[in-house]
Amino acid sequence: MLRLTVNGAAGRMGRRVTAVAAAANDVHVIAALENQDHPQIGRDAGELAGIETLNVPVLSQLDDDAEIDVIIDFSKPEGAEHATALARSRGIPLVIATTGLSDTQQAAIRAAAEIIPIVWAPSMSLTVNLAMKLCALASSTLAAQTGQVDVEIIERHHRFKEDAPSGTAFRFGEIVAKEMGQTLHRHGREGMTGQRSSDEIGYHALRTGDNPGEHTIIFAPLGETLEITVRASNRDCYAIGALAAARFVVKQSPGLYGMDDVLGLKHI
Fold it and tell me: Of 38, 133, 158, 161, which is the active-site residue?
């Protein structure tokens, strides 16, 4: 039985991780953590998640005697920073799904990965990570055969998302640039921008309603267009992926891993 702590348990994603984990036969939610000033401190994590009572109160600190196998972090950058320090100090494997991290926070994750195993990915979605592999294939093939290919990335998320473009959109851009060599990453366009540069990737962030996540990567050589689109219909896909990452990371040696490692896509 996988003994799980959910960091950011009162957030939208934290609640879904709790609910999906509670329904799994091989996972036991042991603890739920939140910022000490959060209004839901003390509430039962199961009730917050809209399921049965789990007798797991939302706390700001992990009990000293808590026996934890893995922490899943779906929070904010400050919460991810706290989860990284906690996991490092306790020697607990960690899954980080929080985006918008500063350079300092990212450096702390890399340093912690020298001591504990960490899965760190901008998206826990299984289909998003498959789409990333498809984008790598499209990028390398089109670059080799057509020369100039225009690439634009459009992402849509709910109105409450605080960072833009999304970490997933940036990751798609990194994958494309690695294969095609673009060095200019342009965020939106306005005014007389002139002709499009062949060296750029364009990013466009939309924030609408309760959209849980949608990404379209457009490849456009002259004469034709390829679009790779992946969209979530609810947040459970991210929770399912995070639990897959948790099952993977508890079996690993210290190091930094991605969803490619979790899904066995690394060498495909």
Answer: 161
